[in-house]
Design brief:
Length: 102
C-alpha cells in the first residue's frame, strides 16, 4: 500500500505537533533542549525545517511524552478472530528474513 503523505508533509506535521506540545507544556526551546539532551541549534533546526537525527527526535519525543504513542503506532495491528474458521482461512505467510529488492 502506497502512502499518500509526502516526506515534507510528514516533517511539517511532526515539527508543528512537537512545537505545539512544547508550548502546551510551558517549555522554552532552551528548556526542552536541555531536558532532552540535545543542542539548542538542533531543536531550532527541527522546529524550523523538520530536520533532525532519529536519536535526537526520539529524545525530544520522550520529554514531550509522545515516544510510546509513536512507537506503538508503528506496530502491526493485532488480528482479532471471531471463530476458528477465521483462523483457518487466514493467509499466514511467514515474513521474509532478508530483503530481495534493490
Amino acid at each position: 500500500m502506497k502512502s499518500l503523505i509526502t516526506v515534507s508533509k510528514a516533517q511539517k506535521v511532526l515539527r508543528a505537533s512537537a512545537r505545539t506540545k512544547r508550548l502546551a507544556m510551558g517549555l522554552t526551546q532552551a528548556g526542552l533542549a536541555t531536558r532532552a539532551g540535545v543542542s539548542l541549534p538542533t531543536l531550532r533546526k527541527f522546529e524550523q525545517k523538520g530536520q533532525i537525527s532519529l536519536e535526537s527526535f526520539l529524545k525530544l519525543l520522550m520529554v514531550l511524552d509522545r515516544l510510546e504513542s509513536v512507537v506503538n503506532a508503528l506496530e502491526p495491528p493485532e488480528q482479532v478472530f471471531s471463530s476458528i474458521d477465521d483462523v483457518l482461512t487466514t493467509d499466514r505467510k511467514s515474513s521474509p528474513k532478508r530483503g530481495w529488492r534493490t
